[in-house]
Known about the structure:
The protein has 336 residues and is an alpha+beta fold. It is built from 13 helices and 7 strands. It has helices at 3-17, 30-39, 43-54, 59-64, 70-80, 83-100, 102-122, 221-227, 232-236, 265-273, 278-293, 302-317, 319-334; strands at 129-140, 147-158, 164-175, 201-205, 212-218, 239-250, 253-256. A 4-stranded antiparallel sheet has the order 4-3-6-7, with no helix packed on it. Strand 1 (129-140) and strand 2 form a beta hairpin.
Amino acid sequence: MNYKLLLVITIFSFGCSNVGDMSVMSDVTQQELKEMIEYDSLYIDVYEEIQKLNRNANKLDSAKYSIITYKMCLDFYKEALNTERWDSKKEEINKEWDQEYRAYDLKADSIILHWKEKLENESSLDRFLKVEPIGIKTDYYSYSSGIRNAYIRFRLTNLSNKTISGATFKYKIVAKVNDDGNEGDYKPRFDGDYTFGWDWQGCISTSVFNESTTGYWEVPYEYENIVGGETLSSLLSTYNIYVIPYKVRVDNVNYSILEESDIPFEITQYWKYEDENENMSRFYKESIINEYVVLNDTVPYTQVKFEKYFKEAMNKEFPIVSKYVQKLQDLENSNF
């Protein structure tokens, strides 16, 4: 073999082996960082994470963890990202859990189905009541042409074939140019955002009726200049008015729309992640079991069991780096 070529290979190999071989507690030059990234692009994430961790390090930490190198952290993060290894362990833990707690899992499915059916049946009161705008009235100041008050006249039609003795409804006015087609959709969205209901105006009727009743309801200030001075037909040429029955009393029994806040949090979160994130959906199903199925015991969480295994395995294989990461992560979290 050509000895010059062998010498070049030896020098190159020796040089590569030293990449990242400097303490995480020392300053890295721009050239050293460039060489690390060229050697392995994962060094970008490693470097950024180390900078975050070291913000919380004191002098004692600097002395204690000075023996840790960037290369050691690279190896640590590579193993932490070894999805083939960890996914197989997750699958093993999940299978063990499924075998042991199958009966609880089926009960959780029944609870989830119960709330799904309840939501489908109670997300609308249209079977009892129909509410629709039928007119507009405007009051003006006597000393000027300014709008004093504006009202929308609504008709409430009884569809229940029973006596209605009170109802509330909500309405919203949306400019057609801004209407994306979902503005009239009033139902739980399971995204934690309840602000969608803020634009809906509430109205109450205390009338007792078997067929229909009508009345005028004053619009809030923000709608005065939209509604005031208009006819219903002129308003509807540029705006949509969405109306939903919200509560109704039928034969002395109260009915109301099911809100997201009425549904157990664990159920809504399970639905949120059911088709998006297997780990999160499993976690919330196990939460359902612990909250609503198991009475005098606690079913272990598979994610907690996996995290314990992961931590123990990493501590065994990378003891000093694991302590460094855990210690400074704890300090980072304590600052919030």
